[in-house]
Amino acid sequence: MPELPEVETVKRTLNQLIIGKTVKHVEIRWPNIIKRPEDWRRFSKALAGETIHRVRRRGKFLLFCFDSKVMVSHLRMEGRYRLAAENYPADKHTHVIFYFTDHTALFYRDVRKFGTMHLFEKGEEWALLPLKKLGPEPLSPAFSTDSLSRACAGTTRVVKTLLLDQKAVVGLGNIYTDEALFRACIHPLRRADGLSGVETARLYRAIVDTLREAVRLGGSTVRTFKNSQGRMGLFQQKLHVYGREGLPCTRCGAPIRKIKVGGRGTHFCPECQKGGTTL
Question: What does the alpha-carbon distance between residue 108 and residue 91 come to, in Å, rounded to a whole number?
Answer without folding.
Answer: 11
